[in-house]
Write a structure and sequence with these properties.
Length: about 300
């Protein structure tokens, strides 16, 4: 079986040069309870479409890395208890066994870049976990340094060390652009309290920065969109995670589910809201890239 399978709808969109946005699926399999996850996918789907872009959900499905799941496929993926969390390190093995998995931002942008998709949307990106000398770092960051894809997010997840994450992005040469804000977004909280070097007020400005970044042979970029205060959870309430940290790939899902258990439905509502808002912005950005004919020059 071909390792990368692109749906007919996505192929058609790419061939006609129309706007398209990659959506991650680890949030479906590992980030949210099943009903909320499906609600979130539908909302992201509609938000992209309303902004003029085709949504392309990426996942490991039926033994292949797929770009362009249908909503029925997403429901089937959410129902599978054997679906693994897929990052670049287990991407190849997941296609052979179990053949189903939710792709993290890292694996999603790898697939997007291979397919020629330049914008992806998620809730919060992975980053540097607190403790252990900053050694527990999400593959999202390294993959962002390699793939010419712009990820629209609400900053790093609240359980991460936001300062260390921002510093690592700087080290890796990944621009972080504040969407109508000078502060790094704090996922479920409005702000992570850290100043960003650049902000943009309009999608055309974002597109211009990305065009220059890619022309200068830059790779990934991050757009940080804060959740408005009326939808966000105050940072003091989010608090510190007192439980003994789970190590490795299970850590992020464990921390997210402990937050959901501690603060209840508000966490899920805020998470779904930011996913929807990020998908809308990603769709508008993809449309701007098309309109302004911004692309990644072929190299070599
Ligand atoms: N954002 C969410 N829920 C999630 C994630 C992000 O709102 O479940 C996932 C993303 O797929 C992200 C991943 O890429 O968590 C990071 O996991 P890790 O820290 O193991 O790299
Ligand atoms: Mn990790």
């Amino acid at each position: 079986m071909a390792p990368l399978t692109i749906s007919a709808d996505v192929t058609h969109t790419l061939e006609s040069g129309k706007p398209i946005v990659a959506l991650e699926s680890a949030v479906i399999t590992h980030g949210l309870p099943k009903a909320a996850a499906l609600d979130a996918v539908r909302r992201q789907w509609v938000a992209c479409a309303e902004a003029g872009a085709t949504p392309a959900v990426v996942a490991v499905f039926d033994g292949a890395l797929r770009v362009g799941l249908s909503l029925d496929d997403c429901a089937a993926l959410a129902a599978r208890r054997d679906a693994v969390k897929v990052s670049p390190w287990n991407l190849a093995s997941a296609t052979t066994h179990p053949g189903f998995g939710g792709t993290t931002v890292a694996a999603t942008i790898a697939a997007a870049a291979l397919a020629g998709i330049r914008v992806a949307s998620t809730g919060g990106i992975g980053g540097v976990h607190p403790g252990r000398d900053g050694q527990d770092v999400s593959a999202d960051l390294t993959e962002l340094s390699r793939r010419a894809v712009c990820v629209v997010c609400a900053g790093p997840k609240s359980t991460l060390d936001a300062g260390a994450t921002l510093e690592r992005l700087e080290t890796l040469g990944v621009p972080v652009i504040g969407w109508q804000s000078s502060l790094l977004a704090g996922f479920l909280a409005t702000s992570a309290g850290l100043r960003l070097p650049v902000r943009a007020e309009a999608v055309d400005e974002l597109a211009a920065i990305l065009g220059a970044h890619w022309a200068l042979e830059g790779a990934g970029a991050v757009v940080s969109q804060p959740l408005p205060a009326d939808l966000a959870i105050p940072i003091a309430e989010l608090g510190a995670d007192e439980a003994a940290p789970v190590r490795g790939p299970d850590r992020t899902p464990a921390e997210l589910s402990r937050l959901q258990a501690r603060l209840g439905d508000r966490v899920i509502q805020a998470n779904v809201a930011l996913l929807e808002r990020n998908a809308a912005l990603a769709g508008a950005l993809a449309a701007a890239l098309t309109r302004l004919q911004v692309s990644v020059p072929s190299r070599g």
